[in-house]
Design brief:
4 copies of one chain form a homotetramer.
Chain A: H1 4-12, E1 18-20, E2 23-25, H2 30-35, H3 37-44, H4 49-55, E3 56-58, E4 65-67, H5 76-93, H6 100-120, H7 124-137, E5 142-145, E6 168-173, E7 176-187, E8 194-197, E9 212-217, E10 223-231, E11 247-261, E12 265-268, H8 271-311, H9 317-342, E13 345-346, E14 352-353, H10 356-381, H11 384-387, H12 391-394, H13 400-407, H14 415-430, H15 432-443, H16 448-458, H17 461-472
Parallel strand pairs in A: 1-10, 5-8
Antiparallel strand pairs in A: 1-2, 3-4, 6-7, 7-11, 8-9, 9-12, 10-11, 13-14
Chain lengths: 476, 476, 476, 476
C-alpha cells in the first residue's frame, strides 16, 4: 500500500493528455491536485485507526495487506464491509468517494474472465489474475469506462451510421488490438492510473468487435481526456471547509486508435459475455450505491437537521416529517445493500456476487429520491442558499458586518457558524458539485429505467403468477 | 404440537362470548370455523414438508419441537426464519396469516419481564417463563390486544373524562387485579385461545394503573368480543377458490371488570416499562410486517402480471413499469426486515431484538405504499373487478353464456380462468377482505406517523449533525 | 320536466330484463327503487330553490324549460353551470350523481352527427334533433354504453377471434340494423330509460361495422342487463343516513341481435367519426369529472376534518397537511374544469366543446389521486372504520352500551354522532359503494393512461420544441 | 413608456451601492448590463407586435398607454392578460421575467391603502395614487422587498434578541420615518429603480413599528445591495444562445437607518393591515406564478421533447409518460390561474383581487413539482449535461472534432445543434441560473407550507364538515 504522496508522484509522471479550460494539462497541475483530494484521502485514511478496519484487507492471491479498493470480494462479510466503507467515506467527503468504480470493474472482470475460460478454454482469467496482482501491489486507482457515445439510441451498435458510436476493435494484431470510440461520464479519469473499459450493453452475435474489455494506463497514446470541472465556489481564506474539498474533473474519454496489448485484454469477441460483464459491473456498482447514497444521505439529513436547529424549528412537525422521509430513504437503500450482501452467491471464480434484485431495488429507490432529498433540504433551508452573499462580501469591511448581523438565527449560534452551514447548503443546492452529484444520483450506475429492466429481467414473475393462479383456483 | 382439529375442538369448548350479527355465538359456530381457516392452516402446514422447515422449531426452554408461532427468537437466524415463514404463509393465504401477533407479544414480554426484574427484583420473568412453557406445550393461539379506545386523543390516559378510555386496573386483590376498558382492532380474537393485553403508549409516573400487561383465556368472565366479519363475497359451488378462505372476524374487545390472577400478570405499575413493552411489541410486529407485506405483495404482483398476461398486455412498457414498482416496494420492505435481523441485538433475557430503524423504515414504506399497490392492480385490471357479474349470473342458464363469452380475453385462456382471475381481483379491490387488509396495511403494527416517531426517536440525529458540522468547518 | 314518481312509474312498465342475484327482475323491484334514489333526486331537486338554478334551463330547440341533464351546452356559461351542478349534486349524494353520462353522450352526438352530415350530406343531425326533442320533452334518463368487451387487447376490433368482442352491425335491413356485442361497466343501465351506445375507440377503414352509434330503450328485445349491486352495508332502523342512499347496480350489458330502427341510428360506417365520437364523449365525460370529483372530494375533506375534530386532533400539523393535500387535489381538478369551460370552442352544430387539454389534465389529476384521498381518510380515521361494530351490535341490549362507551371521543360529541361519522367512513373505506367509486375514480371517463394519450395527442409539442430551439440558439 | 436604453441611462445615474465580487459597483457596470437583459426586454418587446397586446394597456388613472407591469388590474380580463403575458415572456426568457414583483406589490398596495383609509380615515390611498401616477408615467421598475432576516424563527418580531431581525421604524419625524433591518432574496434589486418594502407576516398589536410599507429609490442613502450573481457558464463566441441572457444578481438588501419621507409611506402602524398587505402581495405573486411556472414548464417540456427527439427516443412510452407528466403540471398550474382570475373579486379600491384558493393550489402544485420537473429533464437527457465539454473544448483544434463526433445522435441533426441542446440542458441542470430558478421555484412567492397555511386559512372547512354531517345523518 502506498501513500497519497506516492500516488501524486506517480501520476505526475504521466503524459499530459487532459484537455480542460482550453489547455492540455498534466497530473501535476493544481487543478488535478485539487480534484484528486478525495482520492488522496483513500490512501491517507487507510492509516487512520478510525478507518483502517474498512480500508485495509488481505489479498486472497498474495496474502499481502492491500487496500479494499483493490480487493476481490470473497465472502458475505467482504460485501458488507465494502458497503460500510463506502458509507463511512462518503460521510467524510460529503459526496462521492470516486474510487469504487475501479474496484467494481475489477470484481466484475474477476467473475467473467473465469466464466469465459470455462466455456471457451481461453486464458482470460490468468491474464486478469496477473493484472490483479500488479493492481494490488501498486495500490492502483482504476477508472471504469463503460458508457459509450451511443449515437442514435434507437439503433444497435452495429447499425449506427458512425461505427465508432460504440467503442470497438478496428484492427487485430498478433500482440494486441487497436480500438476506437469514446466513453462518456468518466468521473476521475484524469487522475486515475488506469482506465478499465467495459461494454455498455447486451450485444448480438454479429457485434463481436464491440465485445471488448481491457485495462490500460490513462495516458496511453491515443487517449484524450476531455475534462469538465465541478468544484464548489471558491471561498476566501478563513472560510474554507472540508466540504469544499469535494469536486472532480469529469472526462469525455476518447480512444483514437489505441493499441491494447494482449495481456491487458479481458474479453474479445464473446458477445454473450459482453452482456454479462456489462450487467456485472452495473451490479457491483449498484451495490456500491447502496453504500454511498446512504453516506451522502446522512450528510443531507445532518445538514437539514442542523439548519432546522439553527433556525429554531427542529422540533416542528413539518421538519420532523421531512427528516423521517430522508432517514427512510437512506436506511431502505442501505438495507437493500445489506440484503444483497446476505443473499449473495459465489461465482466459479470464487468472487462473491451480490444479489441482483436487492442491489437494483436499492439503487432504484436512491435514484428515484435524489431530487426529492434536495427538495427537502431546499424546503427546510429556505431561500438563503441561493442568495447568500459570498465570502468576499462576508469579509468586506463595508458590508461584512451586515452579512453577519442578518444571517444570525437563534441565540447560541455564532454568525460564522450559521453562515458556514448556509454556505454548505449553497454549495449543494446552488453549486457545481451539488449539481454534478444530483445528475450522478440519477444516472450513475444506471439510470432509473435500467433498474426496472434489471429487476424484471431476473424477478420470478412466473412464480408469482403461479401463486395468483393457485389462490384464484386456476388449474393449468 | 397439535392438529387443526385439536385446536378447533379446544376452542369449541370455550364460553360463547362473541357478539356478531345481533347474536352471541360460540367457537363451534360456522362463522368461526370459516374465519379461522388460515389459523387452522398454521397447524396443518407444520406437517407439510414444504413448510415444516419454517413452521417447526425447538423450544429453548423445553427442548421440545414447537411451532415457531410460539417460539422466543434466540438468534439472527430465528429472526430471518420467522420473516421468511411469514412471507411464505402470506403467499399461500393471499393476505394475513393472523397468528403472528401472539408470537410478537410473547417475544416482547420475554424481554420486558426480564428487564423489570433486573431493575426492581420482581419475578415477572419467572411467571412469564411458566406461562411460555404452557403456551408452547399446548400450541396456543394468542391474540395481542394493544390499541385502547383512547377517547380524546389530545388527552393523556389519566386526563380522560372517562377513565376507562384506556384499559386499567380498577381493583387490586391479593390474588390478582381487576381491569376495565376496551381494546380495539383485535383481528382473530374470536378464535384465539388467549388474549395478551399490552399497554398502547408511553405512560407517565402517575399512570401506574394503565401500566398493565397480562394474558388470559379469551372467554374469561367479563370479556365481550364484539365482532365484525370480513369475508369475500360468497360464490356458488364450483367457483370457489383458495383465496376465498381468507377472511376474519375483527373484535372490539371489552374488558368489563375482568379478574386477572397474579400468575398471568406480566407488568403492573412500572410505567417506564409500559412504554418499553408497547414499543417492543410494535417493533416485533413491524418486523413481522417486513415478512407479511412482501408476502401479500408477491400475490398482488402475481395477479397484476396474470391479468396483464390474460389481456395480452404483459409486455407493454406501461405494465412493466407498474410491475417494477410493486417489485421494488416488496423487496425494499423485505430487505429492511433482513437488515433488521442481521443488525439485531440480544436482550438480557436472551431474546433477539430486531433493529428498530430497519423495522420501522420497512413498515413505513409498506404502509405508505399499500393504497398505491391497490391502485396499480386497479389500473392494470381495468374496471371489470367492480362490475364483474357474480357467480349466480356466471352459472345462469339464461345469461351465463354471455358472461363467459364477454369476459374472454386472449386465445389460450379459458373463460373460466379469466373469470376466476377477475373474481380474485374483485375480492381484493371491491370486497370486504381486500378492504380490511388495506386498512390493516396502513394501521396494523402502527400507523405511518408512528413509524416517523419511532425512527426519529432512535435515529442518530446528533451524529449526523456532527458530520454536517465537520464538513461545513464548524467548530463547537 | 317530470317528477321522480313519474320517472318510477315509467320505468316500472318496462320489460323485465335485469339479471341479478340469480333472478330476472323488473324496474318495480325494491332493488331498483333503492339503487335509483340518486337518479330520483335529480328530478326532486329541480324543484328545490337551492338547486333549481343549476338543474333547470331552457331548451335551445324548443324554448321550453328542461332539465340540464337533457341540455345541449350552448355557451361557456352552460359548461360552467353544468360543472357546478355536478359538484353540488355530488356534495349531496356523497358520490356519483349517475345521470351525467347520458347528458355527455347526447352532447357528443350533437356535435358528431352534424360533422358527418357536413362531410357526407347525410341526415344524422336531423335524426338526432328529433330524438333530442323527445329526450328533452320526456325528461329521459340516458345511459351511455361505451366500453366494449374488447377480447384480446393487443388486437384491433376486426382482428379478434370472436367478432363480437366489439359491438357491431351483423345485419342491415331497409328499416334499420341488427347489432351484437356487449358493453361493460354501465352504471345505472338497469334504471335508465334509454341506452345510448357509442364506439369505444379509433377505427380503421375496414372496421365500418364497428362504427355504430344509436339510442334505444333499455328493455328492447335482445338486451340483457347483467347486474351487480353495490350498496352500503344495511343498517338497523334509526341509524340510517343520507349517505346510505348512495349505491348502484352496475350492468354488463349484452346486445344479442338487437334491432335498431333507422331513426335511432346516429353513426353507421363512417369510421373516422367513430373515433371523433368516442373522443368527444370521453371529453364531455372528463369535463363532468372536473365537477364530480371535486364534489366527492369536498365530502372526503369534510369527513376527514370531522373525524379529526371528533378525535381532538384537527389542529395538528399532520392533519392540516393532509387536509391541504385533499383541498389541493379538489380545487386543481375543479380549476381545470373552469379553464376547460373558459377556453372552450363552438362546434358547427352550435354545441360548446370544452378544451381538451384542461379536461384531460383535470381528469388525470383526479384519477391519479383517488386512492391517495382514500389513503388520507384512512390515515386520519385510524383503524376503526374496518373494525367498527355494526348497527345490530350498536343496538344490542347486551353490548350496545359498550359500543357507545368506547367509540366516544372528545367531550361535546355524542357517542351516536361519533358512531355515525365512523360508520360513514366505514362505508367509504370498507364498503361496496366506496370501493365501486374508487374503481370508477380510476377508470370512469377513461383510465389514467388514456388521459396521457389524449394530452400528447393534442398538445403543441412542436411549438414547445420550437421555444427550446430558439433559446438554445438552434436554427433549423 | 420608455425604451430599454432610457431605462439603462436612468439607472446608470444612480448612486453606486451594489456590493458584489468584493467591489462596490454602479448600474453602468457590465455585470448590471448583463443581469438586466430580461428586464430590458420588457421595454423592447412592448413595441413588438407579437407581444404588445399583452405588454401595453391603458392606465385607469391617466388614460395613458402604459406598461402592464405598472398597471393596477381592473377586471377579470386584466388578470387573464397578466397571466398570459407572464407565460409568454417566460417562454421567451426560459426562466423568470423578473419584473412582476413590482407590479404585484403595487396591486397589493392599491387595495390595502384604500382599506386602511376606510377604517381609519387616513390618506394612504391618495399618497399611493400619486406615487402610482409617477410610477406609470416613468415606466418604473419596482423590486418588492418582503422577506425579513427573521432571526430565530420560533420567535415573533417583537421577541427577537436583535430587534432589527425584522425591518422596523426606529425613529419618527415630522416629515417621515427612519427604518432599519434587512430584506433578503431580492432578485433584481440592483437594477430596479425603486424598492417597495412590505411586511412579511401577520403582526400583533404591539408590533406596530414592524407594520411599515413604503417605496423608495434603490440608491437611497443607507441602502446596501449585497449582491450574488447567477449566470450561465460563459461560452466562447459563436456558441452563445438566447438562453444565456437569463441570469440575475440577487440582493441581500440592508436598510441601515434609511429615511422614508411621508409621501412614500403606505402603511405605518396599523398592524392588522400589515398582515393583509403581506397576504395580498403573496396572493398577487402566486397569481403571477400561475403564469410564469407554466411558461418555464413549456420550455422544460420543449427541451425534454427535443432531446428525446435528437436521441431517437421521442416515441417511447417511457418518454411519453414523462412528457405527459410535465404537461399536466404546466396546465394544472395555468388552469388554477385562470380559475383564480375568473373567480376574482373587486376590492373597494376597484382593484381586481384573484381568488385566493386557486392561486394557492396553483402555486403549491408548481412548488411541489419543480424538483420533479428537473428530475424528468435529467432522466431523459442522460448524464451528458453534467459532463458535456465546454465551448473551449468544442472549439479546440485538437479535441473539438472529437467533441462533435461523439455528441452526435441521430442522423439529420447536426453536431452543433445537438451540442447546443445539451448545453442548454447543462445550464439548467448544472448551472447557476438553473439552480437559482429551482430554489425560487420552491420558495418564490411563498414556500410550499405557506400555501398550505393560506389554503386552510380561507377554505370553507366548516361548510365541508357540514356536508359530511348531513350525509352521516348527524344532527347538531
Amino acid at each position: 500500500m502506498i501513500t497519497s504522496q506516492q500516488y501524486l508522484d506517480r501520476i505526475a509522471k504521466m503524459r499530459p493528455n487532459i484537455y480542460v479550460d482550453g489547455e492540455v494539462i498534466g497530473r501535476d497541475h493544481p487543478l488535478v491536485l485539487k480534484a484528486s483530494q478525495i482520492i488522496q484521502s483513500t490512501f491517507d485514511l487507510a492509516e487512520d485507526p478510525e478507518y483502517s478496519k474498512w480500508l485495509k484487507t488481505t489479498s486472497h492471491i498474495s496474502g499481502q495487506e492491500i487496500s479494499r479498493f483493490t480487493h476481490i470480494h470473497q465472502s458475505v462479510e467482504d460485501l458488507l464491509l465494502k458497503q460500510e466503507m463506502t458509507r463511512k467515506l462518503c460521510n467524510r467527503s460529503g459526496g462521492c468517494v470516486y474510487r469504487c468504480m475501479g474496484c467494481d470493474a475489477m470484481n466484475a472482470l474477476s467473475v467473467t474472465t473465469k466464466n469465459i475460460d470455462l466455456k471457451y478454454g481461453t486464458d482470460y482469467h490468468d491474464r486478469f489474475l496477473k493484472y490483479l496482482a500488479y493492481f494490488q501491489e501498486n495500490d492502483l486507482v482504476g477508472c471504469a469506462a463503460q458508457t459509450d457515445a451511443k449515437g442514435n439510441r434507437s439503433l444497435r451498435p452495429a447499425e449506427q451510421p458512425d461505427p465508432d458510436a460504440y467503442l470497438h476493435v478496428v484492427e487485430r494484431r498478433a500482440d494486441g488490438v487497436v480500438v476506437r470510440g469514446a466513453k462518456l461520464h468518466n468521473t476521475m479519469a484524469p487522475y486515475a492510473d488506469e482506465i478499465i473499459a467495459l461494454p455498455t450493453r447486451a450485444l448480438k452475435k454479429n457485434e463481436g468487435d464491440y465485445a471488448i474489455a481491457f485495462a490500460i494506463p490513462a495516458d496511453t497514446e491515443g487517449i484524450y481526456l476531455i475534462g469538465r470541472k465541478a468544484f464548489s465556489q471558491s471561498r476566501e481564506e478563513g472560510l474554507e471547509a472540508p466540504y469544499t474539498k469535494l469536486g472532480s474533473i469529469e472526462s469525455f474519454t476518447v480512444f483514437d486508435n489505441v493499441f491494447i496489448p494482449n495481456e491487458r485484454i479481458f474479453l474479445d469477441g464473446q458477445t454473450e459475455f459482453g452482456s454479462e460483464l456489462a450487467m456485472l459491473f452495473a451490479l457491483y456498482h449498484r451495490h456500491s450505491y447502496c453504500g454511498c447514497k446512504p453516506g451522502v444521505g446522512d450528510v443531507m439529513y445532518g445538514l437539514t437537521a442542523l439548519l432546522a436547529d439553527y433556525n429554531g424549528v427542529e422540533k416542528t412537525s413539518h421538519t420532523r416529517e421531512k427528516l423521517a422521509e430522508i432517514a427512510s430513504v437512506v436506511e431502505l437503500v442501505f438495507a437493500a445493500g445489506v440484503a444483497a450482501s446476505v443473499k449473495s452467491r459465489k461465482a466459479p471464480s470464487g468472487t462473491q456476487i451480490p444479489n441482483s434484485i436487492y442491489c437494483n431495488v436499492g439503487r432504484r429507490h436512491a435514484g428515484h429520491n435524489v431530487y426529492h432529498e434536495y427538495d427537502i433540504l431546499c424546503d427546510i433551508a429556505g431561500g438563503l442558499p441561493a442568495t447568500l452573499p459570498l465570502s468576499k462580501e462576508y469579509n468586506s469591511p463595508v458590508v461584512g458586518d451586515f452579512v453577519r448581523k442578518y444571517t444570525k438565527r437563534r441565540e447560541g449560534v455564532s454568525a460564522e457558524n450559521q453562515y458556514r452551514a448556509y454556505n454548505m447548503a449553497s454549495d449543494i443546492l446552488n453549486g457545481d458539485v451539488g449539481a454534478a452529484l444530483l445528475v450522478a444520483g440519477v444516472h450513475g450506475g444506471g439510470s432509473p429505467i435500467m433498474e426496472d429492466i434489471a429487476i424484471l429481467g431476473t424477478y420470478d414473475t412466473e412464480g408469482k403468477k403461479k401463486l395468483a393462479r393457485y389462490l384464484a383456483g386456476i388449474k393449468e
